[in-house]
Here is the input.
Amino acid sequence: MNYRNLGSHGLKVSEIALGSWVTDLSGTEAERIALGTVNSAFDLGVNFFDCADAYSGGAAERFLGRALKEHGRNEYVLSSKVFFPMGRGANDWGLSRKHITEQLEKSLKNFGLDYLDLYFCHRFDPTTPIEETVETMSDLVKAGKILYWGVSEWSPVQLTEAIHLAKENGLRGPAVVQPQYNMTDRYIENEIIGICEKYGLGITPFSPLAQGLLTGKYRKGQPLPEGSRATWQADKQINRLLTGENLDKVERLLGVAQDLGLPLSVLALAWILRQKQVSSVITGASKPAQLEANAAASGIELPAEALAEIEDILDWKPFVRRVG
Here is the structure.
């Protein structure tokens, strides 16, 4: 496993991270397998674990807290997030000082810890002044409750405003961004990556395999694999990705992967890691074998010829508006 700095900061994270958004598994065979996956992560050199308060209403944090108790606090980097509703009250959501402060305490209790390494604003809150959010996150860093803070799925304007507010007021600014990024969704290449490079922020993308599309298990003209996400996912995110155009691209990408002797999933992860501003890629795994397969992407440098072929297949055009 290779490690990268979190942007311009000293914190080092594994190139492959393990995300946890499990349901309540207490006392089940599924919990035993999930615990085995976390332990396997350490064996593979994974040191970064990502979670959120909203995942399964706190059950994911409690599970991960139990799993990590078997390991020294110095052995791992742990993140969680705040924004989504955690109750029915008017202040049980968002990025107000009240909600952030109260929810962090609940997350720390769920994990059984005194501090988090990373704490993300899960989304932007248009009902709270951004000054309040930035100041609150900075105060939590100064108090030792979190070591670094970041944002997930903020626009370039929102991110830049947060950075400048912090600089102008002597506050701790964001250190990391967690956007969606994969071969089918490259919006961060328009502006976000450049902003992060300029101001020294790390990037830890989620959904790197596009809900499973980039694993190669969904094939054109073939039935959905039994038990796959496309057969049960409530919001149908993967189903909306299973277009004829995307499946045609998958077939061509499978050819590139085969020529390189790689699974398509490893090709997709290594492709993301080609971006030097990416610190770690957050992957999901329901069993140790899946995590082991993902971890194989660390350290792989794709040949220039393969990268050029991938660009031809993806046919992505960055947003450019020329004036004059």
Observations:
- Residues 3-216+264-301 form a domain with the TIM Barrel fold (CATH 3.20.20.100).
- Residues 33 and 169 are 47 Å apart (CA to CA).
